[in-house]
Amino acid sequence: MTTPIVSLTDAGKSYNKLDALQSVTMTLGEGEVLGLFGHNGAGKTTMMKLILGVISPSRGQVAVMGMAPDSKEAWHCRTKVGYLPENVSFYEQLTGLEVLTYFAKLKGFNKKQAIDLLEQVGITHAMKRQVKTYSKGMRQRLGLAQAFIGEPKLLLLDEPTVGLDPIATGDFYRTVDQLKSQGSSVILCSHVLPGVEQHIDRAMILSSGQLLAMGSLAELRHQAALPVEIKAHGLNGAIASHDHLANFISPVCSQTLNVPEAEKISVLKTLLGFDNIEDIHVESANLEQVYQHYLALHAQKQQAKGQS
């Protein structure tokens, strides 16, 4: 059995009486992309800092490439880790090329890789300009280039698409897919859920330092028992007069059915039996809906606990 790139075993972090991260157990395999989701204060950044070894756990164990990341023995593993913080900050007076060459040399790489990475993130045209002249999006691209130095085995990205336009966001996800195909493991922390789901293998949802759910999107959908939305066009009142289909009609639209996953195929077969069917659109719950479901469930539990 291969050693996971990242392993947390009942790992938590407390500051005085505040639990920034309650006991969390998880593993990240080689070439796996984990989406880490939660509102501000959920514990996402705390978890990333534990993995980076910037802070030590108050309880439990953290291992990165088989070592405690806050130990002296882990220093040589750090060249294999890339990190993009939520708020990137660079020396304003240096040029983009000077900044990236500096970080590349810290990791044992040369100026050529710095130039190649600047081209990869699309800011070659500005590499000889001072960073103080860069827009927020350009600084974010420079931060991404810094995180990609040395094709890291582990990449931690905290809100990586903030400030990026749609084209740059698409380029970023293509780079993540490429790194994954080369065996890199990625933890991707984001508030921006649309567009993320096709690039992650599993999702991890945190709230108030607590792990609410973790698994593939299909697994989370199944656990949440969220319905599949089926829109049938051309049937007019036929659905409402059908004994079985009428049970699934959405309160919002008479042409839309909210169907349990287990009954999806039988409902589709029934719909295809209508001669005047014009079109069918099938949509499973997306990442945003799954995320909102688990947050709402957590809020209900907290409320019930407060009332008991």
Automatic annotation (TrEMBL):
Annotated SMART domains: AAA
Pfam family, one: ABC_tran
Entry-linked PROSITE patterns: ABC_TRANSPORTER_1 (PS00211), ABC_TRANSPORTER_2 (PS50893)
Protein name: ABC transporter ATP-binding protein
GO molecular function, one term: ATP binding
Taxonomy, superkingdom: Bacteria
Record keywords: ATP-binding, Nucleotide-binding, Transport
Regions annotated as coiled coil: none
CDD domains assigned to the protein according to its UniProt record, in alphabetical order: ABC_DR_subfamily_A
Domain ABC transporter per the UniProt entry, residue ranges: 6-233
InterPro entries: AAA+_ATPase, ABC_transporter-like_ATP-bd, ABC_transporter-like_CS, ABC_Transporter_VariousFunc, P-loop_NTPase
